[in-house]
């Protein structure tokens, strides 16, 4: 009796894996095994397609938007929710905008957090490489270790060349070097972080498009945008007191989906009160 195509395929795959295993570590699916709540049901639905979802644990997620639109606010809420699920969090601040007292205000534990300030793309690159190598070294001894990584924000990172030019008194043009380095950063680590079940959440600045059709665009070129599974674009309006209609009590956050591989693109709006 002739073998079925499935049997033939299994035999072929077995021989192939034996042949290449000396040179290649073959890895299969890194399916999403849990979603981390965002702290907002609407945002959960926008991101994952379910009000009970949120950030996927094997994906890279970008949150871009206007200044003061709530990017860091969402990150700090995400840190709290990750810690509830047993994650140890590495938070990289490129703007020097967060103090140690800010995390406890959001219900975050400093014991489950390591906070670092970095300003160069190369710093981030070496650090993430170190995180990956350390996880691989310790995974046999700590198979249940759960790590999450934040970079807040990509838009404030600089290149080694730009920093060196400043020290030399030069004011040379970037010539696309920053975008190239960010592309190389994401190309090097996005897949490996997914393989290790490390959720990677980053924020980014935006700039106005060159014409009336482009709209606002995240900074840093196409590297972060192509690598991320989800990119949200935040804008803001004024939240005013319901009684007098004049006093500003917070912001109205409008979140639009620029990219989402998990759910249909929807636009949502939620309120962030300064008083709560």
Describe the fold and architecture.
By secondary structure, the chain is an alpha/beta fold. The protein has a single domain, classed as 3-Layer(aba) Sandwich (Rossmann fold). The protein contains eight helices and twelve strands. It has helices at about 5-20, 40-50, 70-85, 100-105, 120-140, 160-165, 175-195, 220-225; strands at about 35, 55, 60-65, 90-95, 115, 145-150, 200-205, 205-210, 215-220, 230-240, 250-260, 270-275. The strands form three sheets. An eight-stranded mixed beta sheet has the order 5-4-6-7-3-10-11-12. Strands 1-2 form a two-stranded antiparallel sheet. A hairpin with a 7-residue loop joins strand 11 (about 250-260) and strand 12. Helix 5 (about 120-140) packs parallel to helix 7 (about 175-195).
- Based on secondary structure, the structural category is alpha/beta
State the end-to-end CA separation. 73 Å
Number of helices: 8
What is the CATH first-level class name?
Alpha Beta
- Average of pLDDT: 92
CATH topology: Rossmann fold
- Read across the widest sheet, the strand sequence of neighbours is 5-4-6-7-3-10-11-12
Overall structural domain count:
1
Task: Profile the largest sheet.
Answer: 8 strands, mixed
Radius of gyration: 21 Å
Q: Percent of residues in beta strands? A: 15-25%
The CATH homologous superfamily name equals P-loop containing nucleotide triphosphate hydrolases
Level-2 CATH architecture? 3-Layer(aba) Sandwich
User: Spans with pLDDT under 50 lasting ≥5 residues?
Assistant: none
Name the helicity range. Answer: 25-40%
Topology as a string of helices (H) and strands (E): HEHEEHEHEHEHHEEEHEEE
Q: What is the global morphology?
A: globular
| Number of E strands | 12
């Amino acid at each position: 009796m002739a073998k079925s195509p499935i049997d033939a395929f299994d035999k072929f795959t077995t021989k192939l894996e034996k042949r290449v295993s000396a040179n290649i570590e073959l890895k299969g699916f890194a399916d999403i095994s849990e979603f981390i709540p965002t702290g907002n049901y609407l945002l959960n639905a926008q991101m994952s397609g379910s009000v009970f979802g949120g950030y996927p644990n094997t994906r890279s997620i970008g949150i871009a938007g206007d200044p003061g639109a709530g990017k860091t606010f969402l990150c700090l809420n995400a840190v709290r929710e990750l810690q509830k699920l047993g994650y140890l969090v590495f938070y990289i601040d490129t703007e020097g905008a967060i103090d140690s007292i800010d995390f406890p205000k959001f219900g975050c534990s400093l014991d489950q957090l390591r906070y670092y300030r970095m300003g160069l793309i190369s710093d981030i690159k070496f650090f993430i490489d170190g995180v990956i190598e350390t996880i691989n070294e310790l995974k046999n001894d700590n198979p249940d270790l759960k790590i999450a990584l934040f970079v807040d924000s990509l838009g404030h990172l600089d290149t080694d060349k730009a920093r060196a030019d400043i020290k030399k008194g030069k004011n040379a043009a970037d010539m696309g070097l920053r975008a190239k380095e960010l592309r190389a950063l994401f190309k090097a680590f996005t897949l490996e972080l997914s393989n290790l079940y490390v959720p990677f959440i980053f924020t980014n600045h935006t700039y106005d498009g060159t014409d009336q059709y482009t709209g606002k665009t995240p900074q840093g070129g196409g590297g972060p945008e192509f690598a991320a599974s989800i990119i949200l674009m935040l804008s803001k309006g004024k939240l005013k007191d319901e009684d007098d209609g004049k006093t500003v009590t917070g912001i109205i956050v409008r979140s639009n989906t620029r990219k989402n591989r998990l759910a249909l693109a929807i636009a949502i709006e939620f309120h962030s009160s300064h008083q709560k």
